[in-house]
Amino acid sequence: MSGSRKFTGSSSSARNKSREEVLLERLHRSGVRLDLEQHDAPFKFVVSPTTTAGVDSDETGRLAADFKVEVFRIIKGLQISSSLTGVVIFPRILDKNISKLADGITYKRKERSYFVKRNIPFAVWQTATHDLRLDIFADSLCESIRSIPARHLSDGDKSKILAAIDDEARSMLKQRSLH
Known about the structure:
Blueprint: H1 12-29, E1 44-47, E2 50-51, H2 57-75, E3 86-93, E4 104-108, E5 113-119, H3 122-127, H4 130-146, H5 155-178
Parallel strand pairs: 1-3, 2-3, 3-5
Antiparallel strand pairs: 4-5
Helix pairs in contact: 2-5, 4-5
Protein backbone atom coordinates (compact mmCIF):
# COMPACT_ATOMS: atom_id res chain seq x y z
CA MET A 1 0.00 0.00 0.00
CA SER A 2 2.65 2.47 -0.98
CA GLY A 3 1.30 5.94 -0.25
CA SER A 4 -2.39 5.02 -0.48
CA ARG A 5 -4.79 4.67 2.39
CA LYS A 6 -8.06 2.93 2.61
CA PHE A 7 -10.92 5.12 3.85
CA THR A 8 -12.47 3.53 6.91
CA GLY A 9 -15.03 6.23 7.69
CA SER A 10 -13.60 6.89 11.11
CA SER A 11 -12.08 10.29 10.43
CA SER A 12 -13.51 13.32 12.18
CA SER A 13 -14.52 14.87 8.84
CA ALA A 14 -16.61 11.80 8.07
CA ARG A 15 -18.30 12.06 11.48
CA ASN A 16 -18.86 15.80 11.03
CA LYS A 17 -20.32 15.30 7.60
CA SER A 18 -22.57 12.62 8.97
CA ARG A 19 -23.77 15.01 11.69
CA GLU A 20 -24.34 17.73 9.09
CA GLU A 21 -26.35 15.36 6.95
CA VAL A 22 -28.47 14.36 9.94
CA LEU A 23 -29.09 18.02 10.81
CA LEU A 24 -30.00 18.84 7.21
CA GLU A 25 -32.42 15.92 7.11
CA ARG A 26 -34.04 17.07 10.38
CA LEU A 27 -34.43 20.60 9.07
CA HIS A 28 -35.90 19.33 5.82
CA ARG A 29 -38.38 17.08 7.65
CA SER A 30 -39.47 19.96 9.89
CA GLY A 31 -40.33 22.05 6.85
CA VAL A 32 -37.37 24.45 6.92
CA ARG A 33 -36.51 25.51 3.39
CA LEU A 34 -32.77 25.60 2.84
CA ASP A 35 -31.44 27.65 -0.04
CA LEU A 36 -28.16 26.01 -0.89
CA GLU A 37 -28.10 27.53 -4.39
CA GLN A 38 -26.87 30.87 -3.03
CA HIS A 39 -24.31 29.29 -0.69
CA ASP A 40 -21.30 29.74 -2.99
CA ALA A 41 -22.67 32.61 -5.08
CA PRO A 42 -20.47 35.72 -5.33
CA PHE A 43 -23.53 37.92 -4.60
CA LYS A 44 -26.42 36.79 -2.41
CA PHE A 45 -29.96 38.20 -2.26
CA VAL A 46 -32.02 37.22 0.78
CA VAL A 47 -35.46 38.40 1.90
CA SER A 48 -36.76 37.65 5.38
CA PRO A 49 -40.02 39.34 6.42
CA THR A 50 -41.05 40.20 9.97
CA THR A 51 -44.73 40.48 10.89
CA THR A 52 -46.99 40.86 13.88
CA ALA A 53 -50.40 39.35 14.57
CA GLY A 54 -52.94 40.47 12.02
CA VAL A 55 -50.65 39.79 9.06
CA ASP A 56 -50.77 36.54 7.11
CA SER A 57 -47.22 35.29 7.62
CA ASP A 58 -47.78 32.54 5.03
CA GLU A 59 -48.47 35.18 2.38
CA THR A 60 -45.47 37.32 3.31
CA GLY A 61 -43.30 34.21 3.51
CA ARG A 62 -44.37 33.17 0.01
CA LEU A 63 -43.75 36.66 -1.37
CA ALA A 64 -40.30 36.74 0.24
CA ALA A 65 -39.38 33.29 -1.06
CA ASP A 66 -40.70 34.03 -4.55
CA PHE A 67 -38.84 37.33 -4.83
CA LYS A 68 -35.66 35.83 -3.40
CA VAL A 69 -35.70 32.96 -5.88
CA GLU A 70 -36.66 35.04 -8.91
CA VAL A 71 -34.28 37.94 -8.22
CA PHE A 72 -31.40 35.59 -7.51
CA ARG A 73 -32.16 33.60 -10.68
CA ILE A 74 -31.83 36.84 -12.65
CA ILE A 75 -28.83 38.40 -10.92
CA LYS A 76 -26.71 35.25 -10.68
CA GLY A 77 -25.95 35.63 -14.38
CA LEU A 78 -25.10 39.33 -14.09
CA GLN A 79 -21.69 40.80 -13.48
CA ILE A 80 -21.80 42.65 -10.15
CA SER A 81 -18.62 44.72 -9.95
CA SER A 82 -19.11 46.18 -6.46
CA SER A 83 -17.26 44.69 -3.51
CA LEU A 84 -20.56 43.91 -1.76
CA THR A 85 -21.20 40.18 -1.41
CA GLY A 86 -24.86 40.29 -0.51
CA VAL A 87 -27.97 42.01 0.73
CA VAL A 88 -30.40 40.76 3.37
CA ILE A 89 -33.69 42.66 3.32
CA PHE A 90 -36.12 42.52 6.21
CA PRO A 91 -39.49 43.91 5.08
CA ARG A 92 -41.45 44.52 8.28
CA ILE A 93 -45.22 44.72 8.58
CA LEU A 94 -45.84 45.56 12.20
CA ASP A 95 -48.95 46.63 14.05
CA LYS A 96 -47.66 49.68 15.96
CA ASN A 97 -49.84 48.69 18.93
CA ILE A 98 -47.72 45.54 19.23
CA SER A 99 -44.29 46.62 18.04
CA LYS A 100 -42.62 49.79 16.83
CA LEU A 101 -39.25 49.48 15.15
CA ALA A 102 -37.48 52.12 13.09
CA ASP A 103 -36.17 51.50 9.59
CA GLY A 104 -32.50 50.61 9.66
CA ILE A 105 -29.52 49.78 7.54
CA THR A 106 -26.39 48.03 8.78
CA TYR A 107 -23.17 47.34 6.92
CA LYS A 108 -21.63 44.03 7.96
CA ARG A 109 -17.96 44.78 7.33
CA LYS A 110 -16.68 41.23 7.87
CA GLU A 111 -19.21 39.74 5.40
CA ARG A 112 -19.19 42.82 3.10
CA SER A 113 -22.99 42.77 3.09
CA TYR A 114 -25.91 44.96 4.08
CA PHE A 115 -28.86 44.22 6.33
CA VAL A 116 -31.74 46.55 5.47
CA LYS A 117 -34.85 46.76 7.66
CA ARG A 118 -37.75 48.62 6.07
CA ASN A 119 -41.26 49.07 7.47
CA ILE A 120 -44.35 48.62 5.34
CA PRO A 121 -47.33 50.53 6.79
CA PHE A 122 -49.55 48.04 8.59
CA ALA A 123 -52.84 49.81 7.73
CA VAL A 124 -51.93 50.04 4.04
CA TRP A 125 -51.04 46.34 3.96
CA GLN A 126 -54.25 45.35 5.75
CA THR A 127 -56.50 47.08 3.22
CA ALA A 128 -54.56 46.09 0.08
CA THR A 129 -55.57 43.37 -2.38
CA HIS A 130 -53.12 40.55 -3.07
CA ASP A 131 -51.90 42.23 -6.28
CA LEU A 132 -51.36 45.51 -4.48
CA ARG A 133 -49.50 43.70 -1.68
CA LEU A 134 -47.15 42.24 -4.27
CA ASP A 135 -46.47 45.80 -5.51
CA ILE A 136 -46.01 47.13 -1.97
CA PHE A 137 -43.58 44.30 -1.19
CA ALA A 138 -41.60 44.89 -4.40
CA ASP A 139 -41.49 48.64 -3.73
CA SER A 140 -40.11 47.96 -0.26
CA LEU A 141 -37.37 45.75 -1.74
CA CYS A 142 -36.49 48.47 -4.27
CA GLU A 143 -36.35 51.16 -1.58
CA SER A 144 -34.08 48.90 0.45
CA ILE A 145 -31.65 48.53 -2.46
CA ARG A 146 -31.74 52.29 -3.15
CA SER A 147 -30.79 52.97 0.48
CA ILE A 148 -27.41 51.22 0.15
CA PRO A 149 -24.61 53.78 -0.28
CA ALA A 150 -22.90 53.94 -3.69
CA ARG A 151 -19.49 53.39 -2.05
CA HIS A 152 -20.58 49.77 -1.42
CA LEU A 153 -23.05 49.17 -4.26
CA SER A 154 -22.38 51.18 -7.40
CA ASP A 155 -25.21 52.93 -9.21
CA GLY A 156 -24.74 50.55 -12.13
CA ASP A 157 -25.04 47.48 -9.91
CA LYS A 158 -28.04 49.03 -8.12
CA SER A 159 -29.71 49.53 -11.49
CA LYS A 160 -29.18 45.87 -12.37
CA ILE A 161 -30.67 44.64 -9.08
CA LEU A 162 -33.55 47.12 -9.25
CA ALA A 163 -34.36 45.96 -12.79
CA ALA A 164 -34.29 42.35 -11.59
CA ILE A 165 -36.78 43.19 -8.82
CA ASP A 166 -38.96 45.74 -10.51
CA ASP A 167 -38.99 44.85 -14.18
CA GLU A 168 -38.57 41.10 -14.22
CA ALA A 169 -39.45 39.44 -10.88
CA ARG A 170 -42.47 41.64 -10.17
CA SER A 171 -43.86 41.07 -13.68
CA MET A 172 -43.25 37.34 -13.52
CA LEU A 173 -44.90 37.00 -10.10
CA LYS A 174 -47.91 39.04 -11.24
CA GLN A 175 -48.32 36.78 -14.26
CA ARG A 176 -48.04 33.74 -12.02
CA SER A 177 -50.74 35.06 -9.66
CA LEU A 178 -53.14 35.48 -12.61
CA HIS A 179 -53.05 31.77 -13.31
